[in-house]
Amino acid sequence: MSGSESARVIRESFAQVEAKSEELAQYFYGALFVIAPDTRDLFPVTMATQRSRLLRALVYVVQMVDRPDELSTFLSQLGRDHRKFDVLERHYDAVGTALLSAMKRFLGRAWTPEVETAWTSAYRVISEMMRKAAAEEAGPAWWSGTVVEHRKVSTDVALVRVRTEGLLPYRPGAYVSVEVPQRPRLWRYLSMATSPRDDGLLTFHVRAVTGGWVSRAIVNHTNPGDVWRLGPSLGALSVVPTTDQRPLLMIAGGTGVAPLLAILDELARWKRNPPVHLFFGGRKPGDLYALDELRHLAVTSRWLTVTPVTEEGAISGGDRGTLATAVTQRGKWAGHDVLVSGSPNMIRATVARLLATGVELERIKYDPFTLD
Fold first, then answer.
1. Does CATH place domain 3-136 in 3.50.50.60?
2. 22, 205, 252, 313 - which has most CB atoms within 10 Å?
């Protein structure tokens, strides 16, 4: 079976079970814990967040199955990140068995030999990439960091500064997995809001998500002196200086602005900058907690244009509607590189609208993990 044929089979078969993805995830973890009981201790008591994360990972892999370079980058990062769980070689085999078992159960008669071959081959490639990256990584599996500042910047968003023991290497735009003492074994992904510093200080913006165990604990119960664990840096959002730098379109929803602020912090140090247009959106004006900071940066940086967007309520100099609508109404962006950061729903809607206007998918970067 050719690569393109295998990708087609995987996409079509996954589409048949996507409506029952929650049940599939429950079955998968149940099967995993029967096959390898010791893996249960790697996960939190409450599994709802973990099931959601599995589904997002599956969807992302299915989307990227015929884009090997991007898939390799994503899976290599995932393999390095999973070292913090003390994952063993045999755990990868158990995960593969549980995944194929879940797909077989929910596809029923549609689980044909062709489908089984495609999924078996795909998982073999996935696990090999993750194992190889984990084996080759020489850095720490995680870093210890102490909270030095916790400050609410809106009713449901907090700014948290953490100083790590030893420098955690990352590129502006990256995110890390974080475990806080209030929620042991519940790791959450957070983006750094500033470019790397020599003193090990990291800044995070955290919104208390409805039903988000970790985010609500961070926003409402974090105190200076708390010790966090942080995994290695991950992510696709970045800007690298080139001789033929294209204009840059940034689209941020809510705390999705954090990694873009880190990139802007880095860009401000360049001698020559590409033109940057940043759309910062929220449901209401109060959600645009970083707007003053962005506007101040725009005043001192001629290369930066900032457009606030709200779905409810007007804001000076801003647009009304969703980010997807506001961005596409403002003009054509086919000549730009694009960074999108925010909730999964916002990312999906915005990327779809951009593609419909002629922006090439290869020019759009976004990360799949953003919420609890």
1. no
2. 252
